[in-house]
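Shape matters. As here.
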Amino acid sequence: MTKQWFQVKEALRDLQEKDKKTAEFLDKIISEINQNFKTLEDYLSLQYYQLCHWQESLNRLNYRRFFTVNSLICLKMENDDLFKDYHSFIEQQVKNKRFQGLRIDHIDGLKKPLKYMDNLRIMAGDDVYLIAEKILEKNEGFISDIPFQGTSGYDFLSFAGNLFTRKKIWMNWFYITAK
C-alpha cells in the first residue's frame, strides 16, 4: 500500500466523476469485462478473496474467505458528517483515555483512504497509536508520511512463519490450494 497508489485511485475516481470521456472509457472497459464471463472469471480468480452472495457469506468461510464485511458495505467515510457520527463513540472513548490505540481494518477499500487517515488522526489526536490492518506484498512498503504508526504486522508474521516452513511441504500445499 503506497501513498502513490492511493493518490492514483483517488485521482482516477475524481476524474471519472468530473470528465465524461473518462467515465465513458471506464464504463466501456467494465462493460466488455462483464460481457465476457471467462475474462471476468480470470480477473476475479486473481483476487486474494473469494466473492459470494452476501446471504451465503457466513456459510462459505475458508482460507480465502475467512471473515465477512457485510456490515461495512456502503459506509461513505469520505462524507465528513457521516465520519463524525460513525466515530462519535470512538472519539468519546479516546477523550476519556479508555482507548490509547486504534486498529483500522480494510482501509484500502475506502474511497478516500488518505482523507480517512487524516480525519482519524485529527479526531484521535497525536497521542493515540494508530495502525492499519494491511497485508503487505513481499516488496510493498507502508506509506511513510501518513499519520499512522504502521500496520498490524501480518507482513512480519508471514516472514517469521516462513523461517520454519519446509519448502517442499509449502509447495504441496500451494499446489493443492491454488486449484
Remarks:
- The chain has a mean pLDDT of 81.
- Helices lie at 3-18, 20-35, 37-45, 80-86, 88-95, 113-124, 154-163, 167-177.
- The first helix runs from residue 3 to 18.
